[in-house]
Write a structure and sequence with these properties.
The structure is a single chain. The protein is mainly alpha-helical and about 60 residues long. It has a domain of about 40 residues. The chain is built from three helices and no strands. Helix 2 packs across helix 3. The longest helix is centred in the last third of the chain and has 12 residues. The radius of gyration is 12 Å and the shape is globular. The termini are far apart.
């Protein structure tokens, strides 16, 4: 499971955890938005990266 902290490995790249500073920073950079805009998007559509990207697409232009 992705939230099993005893196992090492990459983060779940299909979900965005806005409570992890590095994830918030990395995803915001990937989508070309601010961390606050990313948090708002996750609040609106959930933490699935594909849904957040679709939601933010008009913002990226």
């Amino acid at each position: 499971m992705s939230d099993d902290k005893t196992r090492s490995g990459g983060q779940d790249r299909k979900r965005i955890n806005v409570n992890e500073t590095y994830e918030l920073r990395d995803w915001a950079k990937k989508f070309g938005v601010t961390p606050d805009e990313l948090k708002q998007a996750v609040g609106r559509v959930g933490d699935r990266a594909d849904e957040v990207e679709r939601f933010l697409k008009p913002v990226k232009s």
